[in-house]
């Protein structure tokens, strides 16, 4: 559940309540199957998680930047701004309007809790769950909707995920 719902404006509360993810816990956006296949192929040829993520970054498979933090056992993906691909909300000149891909939120100018962007994190599940299993945890690490300067999704791996 989105924290601090009581402090949201009526417009923000309505956006959250009517968001497809709030209702179904499923991201309605679909990741391109070619991205999923390429990711699985890269993993199959990688010696370990670090080299896997380095190759995803080298090939620019998805996102603005992708990196692996071994200490946190977490993959991070900085998302590309929506306006860089003709998306966003042209009527909203704020960073939310320019960067946010979600038409349910990109009209807003007020900040919302990060958890409201869980759908954005779940968008990446098809890319990593076939490799690391259902126990991965995906969550919004940074979001423009919550006041950050970019959106970064975290994929927390469970255990000592190594490939060999």
- Summed over residues and divided by their number, the pLDDT gives a mean of 91
Largest sheet: 4 strands, antiparallel
Strand content: 5-15%
| Strand arrangement across the biggest beta sheet | 1-2-4-3
Computed Rg: 16 Å
Name the helicity range. 25-40%
The N- to C-terminal Cα distance equals 38 Å
Secondary-structure-based class equals alpha+beta
**Globular, elongated, flat, extended or rod-shaped: what is the shape?**
globular
Low-confidence stretches: none
Summed up, the domain count is: 1
Count of beta strands:
4
Number of helices: 7
Order of secondary-structure elements: HHHHEEHHHEE
3D architecture notes:
The chain is α+β, with helices and mostly antiparallel strands. The protein has helices spanning 10-18, 20-24, 33-45, 49-59, 95-99, 118-122, 125-132; strands at residues 65-69, 74-78, 137-142, 152-156. The chain has one domain. The chain contains 7 helices and 4 strands, in the order ααααββαααββ. β1 (65-69) and β2 (74-78) form a beta hairpin. The N and C termini lie far apart (38 Å).
């Amino acid at each position: 559940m989105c924290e601090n719902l009581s402090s949201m404006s009526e417009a923000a509360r309505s956006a959250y309540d009517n968001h497809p993810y709030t209702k179904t816990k499923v991201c309605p956006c679909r990741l391109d199957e070619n991205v999923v296949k390429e990711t699985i192929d890269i993993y199959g040829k990688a010696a370990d998680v670090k080299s896997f993520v380095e190759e995803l970054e080298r090939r620019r498979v998805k996102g603005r930047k992708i990196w692996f933090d071994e200490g946190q056992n977490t993959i991070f993906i900085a998302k590309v701004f929506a306006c860089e691909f003709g998306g966003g909300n042209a009527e909203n000149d704020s960073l939310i309007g320019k960067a946010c891909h979600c038409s349910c939120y990109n009209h807003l100018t007020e900040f919302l809790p990060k958890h409201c962007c869980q759908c954005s994190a779940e968008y990446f599940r098809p890319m990593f769950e076939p490799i690391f299993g259902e126990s991965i945890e995906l969550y919004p690490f940074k979001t423009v909707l919550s006041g950050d300067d970019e959106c970064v999704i975290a994929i927390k791996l469970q255990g000592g995920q190594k490939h060999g």
